[in-house]
Amino acid sequence: MAATAGQARAPGPTTLLSIGQVLARMTVDFPDLTPSKLRFLEERKLICPSRTESGYRKFSPSDLERLRFVLTLQREHYLPLKVIKEYLDDLDAGRQPQLPGGASSVPSILSTERRLPREELIKEAGATPQLLNDAVSSSLIVASEYYGDDAVNVLRSLVELQKSGIEPRHLRTFRVAAERELGLIENALMPVTRRNDASSRAKALELAREIAGQLEIVRSSLIRSALGRLDN
C-alpha cells in the first residue's frame, strides 16, 4: 500500500562507495589523495570503512565527511595525524576539544568545501577580475575552472593588501620561497621516499605536512620578531 501524506516512509538503504568512487568524488578537492593514503588513514584509525564479505572497503556518506574533515585539517592547519586522531576521539566522546596552535576556525565535520566558478570567486572575495588575473600571473593562485575556499581566502587577503599598496606582483618572492621550502622538505624525505612502496609514500606525505607545519611556526616567529623592531 502506498504511504499516505504525513506517513513516515522507511529510509532507503545507505549508498556505499568503493575506493575508486571515493577518489572520483574527493580528488577534485584533494588531488594528492590516493588509495595508499586511504589505507594509511585507515591503519591510523582516522577512518573506519566497512568491509564486504570479500574484504573490499566500502565508504558510507559519514565516512566521506570524516575523511574530508581529516584532509581539511591537514591542509588548512598542517596538523599531524596523531593530533587529528586525538581531536576526533574527543569529539566522538562528546567533548569539545580545542585544536593546538590556537586555530580559531575548524571545519564542520558535516561541511563540504565549495567549488566556485571564476565570477563567484571574484564576488565572494570582493575583488576585481584584474586582481584575480594578477594573482594568477604572480603564481599566488592557480588558474582553474572552479576554486575552493583556499583561493577565496587568498584573494580576500590580496584585496586587503592592495589597500595598503601591496600588489600581487610584489609577492612573487612568496612563490620562490615556497619552492625553496619544498626543496628542503623533499631532501628531508629522501630516506623515506627511497622505499618505493605504498605505505612509505603515505608516511612521506604525512611527514611532509608535519615539516611544513614546523616551517610555518618558524616563519611566523620571524615575522613577529621583525614587527617587534618597528616599535623601537
Describe the protein's architecture and organization.
There is one protein chain. The protein is mainly alpha-helical and 232 residues long. Helix content is 56%, strand content 3%. It is built from nine helices and four strands; from the N terminus they run ααββααβααβααα. β1 and β2 (57-58) form a beta hairpin. The longest helix has 31 residues, at 198-228.
Unreliable spans are 1-12
CATH topology of the largest domain, by name, is: Multidrug-efflux Transporter Regulator, Chain: A, Domain 2
Approximate shape: globular
Top CATH class of the largest domain: Mainly Alpha
Q: Roughly how many Å apart are the termini?
A: 82 Å
List the secondary-structure elements in sequence, H or E. Answer: HHEEHHEHHEHHH
Q: What's the count of strands?
A: 4
Radius of gyration from CA coordinates = 21 Å
Instruction: State the helix count.
Output: 9
Strand-helix topology:
Layout: H1 19-26, H2 35-43, E1 50-51, E2 57-58, H3 61-77, H4 81-92, E3 116-117, H5 118-125, H6 129-137, E4 146-147, H7 149-163, H8 172-193, H9 198-228
Antiparallel strand pairs: 1-2, 3-4
Helix pairs in contact: 2-9, 5-7, 8-9
Describe the structure using short key phrases.
Multidrug-efflux Transporter Regulator, Chain: A, Domain 2; globular; 232 residues; two-stranded antiparallel ribbon; disordered N terminus; 3 domains
Short description:
By secondary structure, this protein is mainly alpha-helical. Helices cover 56% and strands 3% of the residues.
